[in-house]
Structure formats: C-alpha cells, structure tokens
Amino acid sequence: MEQHNLVIIGSGPAGYTAAIYAARADLKPIMYVGLQPGGQLTTTTEVDNFPGYPQGVDGNQLMEDLKNQAERFGTDVRWGMITQVEFSDTPGGFHTLTVDETTQIQAQTVVIATGATAKYLGLPSEEKFMGHGVSACAVCDGFFYKGQEVVIVGGGDTAAEEASYLAKLCPKVTMLVRKGELRASKAMQNRILSTPNIEVRWHTETLELLGNEGVEAVKVRNLQTGVEDVIPATGFFVAIGHKPNTDIFKGQLDMDEVGYLQVQPGSTKTRKPGVFAAGDVADKVYRQAISAAGTGCMSALDAERYLAEFH
Ligand code: NDP
Question: Catalytic site residue 140?
Fold first, then answer.
C-alpha cells in the first residue's frame, strides 16, 4: 500500500494553498481533486475580490493558476474521490483512505478541504441562468448588480446579511421568505426590517426565473393566497444554506448539527491526531476564497509541525 506524508482531500482554494505550502516544505503532498475539481469558484464567472488580481480574474483561471503553482513545487494532483476514511487514534500513526471505492492508500497527515455546497432551489430556470443572474454569494457577485434591482431567497442569517450587503449597492432588494418569520438573529431581523430599500415578501415561493440572455424578472407565488406576481430583477441570489461535504467523516470527527467540522480554535486541528480541516468545510461564517486559502496555509503548517515530531 502507498504511504505518504500528507494527503489533501479537495481542490478548492483551501486545498491548493495547503498544497503550495506543503510542497514547498518538501512534504511531497498528494491531492485528490474530488467531484468538482477547483471547487465552488469554478461555478462563478468573475472573481473581483481575490487579492492580487487588480482587474479581477475568471474563477476557472484562478483555480488553474493555483493548481499550476501547487504543481510547480511538486504536488501530485490526482483525479479521484476519497470515498472512505479510517482515521488512526495513535499519534504518528497512519490514516487509511479509500480512493474511488477501490484502492487504499495511507498517510500520516490528512488535510480535509472538501468544502461546502451551496443549496439551490432546484428550478430548471435557475440552472439555465447560473452565472448569468443567478448567484449563491452576494459578497462575491453583488457588485456586478450595482444600481440594479435584485431578489434574494431565504430567511436565515446568510440571507439577512446578504440582503443588507446588497441594499448598499442596489436601489431595491426583494427578500423572498417562505414562512411568516425570519430565522435570522434578532439583530439581523431588525436591520432588515428597518432598511427602507429592502422589501420582505412573506409566505412567498419562487416559481420561475424569466429572461433571455440573463435574468430579467422573478415569478413568485404567495403560499397563503395563491396569488402570483412577477418582480423585475436582474440578479437572483439564493441564500438557503450550504451543505458541508463531510458525510464520509461522520462518526470519526466532531461536527456541528449541520455537519461542519469542528477544529481547535486558532488552528486547523480536528480531534484525530494528524487530521486537519481547512476552508469552507470548517467555516460556516466567512466562506470566502481568501479565508479558505488562509486556513489552507494554516493546515499545511500544522501538518508540517505535526510530522516534525515523528521524523
Ligand atoms: P439557515 O439554514 O439558517 O437558513 C436557511 C433559510 O433558507 C431559512 O430561512 C429557510 O427557511 C430558507 N430555506 C431553506 N430552503 C428553502 C427553500 N427550498 N425555499 C425557500 N427558502 C428556503 O442557513 P444560513 O446559511 O442562513 O445559516 C447557516 C448557519 O450559519 C446558521 O446557523 C447561521 O446562524 C450561521 N450564520 C452566521 C453568520 C454570522 O454569525 N455572522 C452569518 C451567516 C450564517 P425556513 O426558515 O422556512 O426553514
């Protein structure tokens, strides 16, 4: 069986940054890219807020740049999914990972950077306009809708924060909430309800997005009255939660009720020795490419220091 110093699971900004640092430290990291090579940024068109790109950068290009940088220092980037893990409790012991349900490999340290997946409503028109009016991240894409009317779906803290963010850029933000109340914290609720250019539509569901090249309007229905309406909007933001990609770690690592991995504060250490978590898989609050890259760096340094104890 192959044995390695470090296996990185996942190929978003956290995974690649961990790879760059680990490879430069001569750990000879192996990366498994997973189902969506490059991660969530490959679903966005333009990234304007990643430091170092004054003119912005295409999400796919950014991930390609990170990959090239990781490979330049010798990261072994492999296609494949880790489908099962068996983490050791012994400090310095090897963890066993199964690749694509067939091959087993071992590693003394593992960086989990499997990310989270934004939830969408599942409407065909939502898929059609993905990247052309539909977004699951207002902080990433809101700027492109400056001066335009937008709609946001959801009633949790994310939706409330994003509606508030959008209200600073857009003349009108319509928030579609399926119940008669917001799930967001009281403070966020107060902020939403007192912002003049945010209109909350209660008991409202989205039926369809209308438009040609991009979104032009949102067709909705009031769930109590059955009355349908069409709201003009060029941006449609979905903020109905994320699902961290942690199913294969259940029972082995500590998670919160939604499944986000828990790490020791100020580090990327999980409760298993030599297993570290970086990026969105352990972060439900910030969820930015740059903060994921930051914890990716931390995870490589944590792994390097851990390995130094056993070599
Ligand atoms: P939540 O799960 O808290 O909220 C999801 C919202 O989306 C709910 O209002 C839910 O409605 C609605 N929703 C779910 N599915 C649908 C659907 N199919 N159609 C329409 N609406 C739908 O997710 P968040 O991302 O908002 O927050 C996740 C966690 O992260 C929470 O614990 C939150 O507090 C935390 N968070 C904290 C922040 C901070 O501290 N600054 C910032 C952002 C998030 P319903 O209520 O009817 O179920």
Answer: yes
Which domain covers residue 83, as residue numbers? 2-117+242-308
DSSP state of 255: B
> Which mutation among 126, 178, 205, 256 tests ligand 1's pocket best, with the greatest number of atoms within 8 A of CB?
178
Measured CA to CA, the distance from residue 80 to residue 102 in angstroms comes to: 11
Report field, pTM of the whole predicted structure over 0.85: no
Q: Which of 156, 207, 164, 159 is nearest to 181 (CA)?
A: 156
Tokens representing 242 are 């994320």
Rounded to the nearest angstrom, the distance between the alpha carbon of 118 and the centre of ligand 1 is: 11
**Nearest 5°: CA angle at 287, between 21 and 174?**
155
For the chain, the domain total comes to 2
Whether residues 19 and 38 share a domain: the answer is yes
Q: Are residues 281 and 135 in the same domain?
A: no
Tens of pLDDT, residues 87-107: 999 999 999 999 999 999 999
Distance 184 CA to ligand 1 centre (A): 7
Domain co-membership, 55 together with 165: no
Contact 66, 17 (CB under 8 A): yes
Ligand 1 centroid, distance to 43 Cα (angstroms): 21
The 10s digit of each residue's pLDDT in 136-192 is: 989 889 999 999 999 999 999 889 999 999 999 999 999 999 999 999 999 999 999
> Which residue has its alpha carbon closest to ligand 1 atom 21?
154
Ligand 1 site, CB within 6 A: 121, 153-159, 161, 178-179, 183, 240-241, 284-285
